[in-house]
Amino acid sequence: MPASTLACAQRCIDVLSAADGSAHSPLYTVMTMANTLESTRQAWVIRGQSRSRRVGNWPSWFARNTVEKPLLYLHSAQSSAQLSALADVTQQRGILCNDIENQPSPWPRGAQPSLPLWLAAHPRCTPYDPACGEEARAIVLAALRALYVDGKPGFYYLALHDQESAAALSAQDCEGVLKGMYPIRRNHAGDVRLLGAGRALEEVQHAARLLEQDWNITAQVWSCPSYTRLAREAAAAERWNRLHPTAPKRSCHLRECLAANAAPVIAVTGYPQAIVDQLAGYVDARFVALGAGSVQAGAPSRYWIVVMALRALADEGRTDLQQVETAMARYPLK
């Protein structure tokens, strides 16, 4: 990494680290970080709605800026084709932030189903779906270090929503954010484990309270900002173990987090179910994946999460199937 680029990145990290870290939504947090970066003149901050930087003008604009600086791009891409074009123009390098969730669209989360699937399959992309501003802040700072200090290739992607959700994160939590998951509510004797990402995490937390209040079932709750990063690390560890049968086995963050017990795992996303299906082969317990279209057209509601948790426990013989029927009659399932 050129010394000038590293110096710009370090200046950006120092300024952002010293800035106000108050609790806000992921979108507001990143917009604030973008304003701060823009004022330093140490980064390229591009806003998709700017008329002066239309797609056709990007290549010439980058050509005039021969010294690489950290790139933060704020955009609204509803399809994989749009995002693919953006990634190509930015030479698949930078921090791309998408606020399409707030745009009118017939698709769940404002994006066509192909978009999250393209992100998960793209080898140069590290996609995140932060649930709160603190998660988004930790991811942007880590991306600056990884791309422009350590010189790693690729680009980071953040899906941003504008719903405030406060969470005080420790240094260990921030490390978990980057790896893909960290505990929000961790009962060591939990009967079931609930995983959630982005806005879906709020429904997961409500479901955990309903399970305890209505069914006397305790639940661990984990925030999973990147199911894809968890799955990729798990796949890499499994491949290494396969190729090195006599060496000590490598573990992965997913298995380390879920090693405490064998309680069923319910993983929830607002994206299509295929995003959480990536984890299925690496969870050593009964696993249920829920996403947009799994049980209802949009993201699964707290009531469906409760029902599916009860069903997973019933399939394990830990509760009665009659409770599942009772829950389905009790809650407003749509």
From TrEMBL:
SUPFAM superfamilies: TK C-terminal domain-like
Domain Transketolase-like C-terminal: 180-282
Keywords associated with the record: Pyruvate
InterPro entries: PDH/Transketolase, Transketo_C/PFOR_II, Transketolase-like_C_2
Pfam families tied to this protein: Transketolase_C_1
PANTHER family: PYRUVATE DEHYDROGENASE E1 COMPONENT (PTHR43825)
Protein name in the entry: Pyruvate dehydrogenase
Organism: Pseudomonas azadiae
Lineage of the species this protein comes from: Bacteria, Pseudomonadati, Pseudomonadota, Gammaproteobacteria, Pseudomonadales
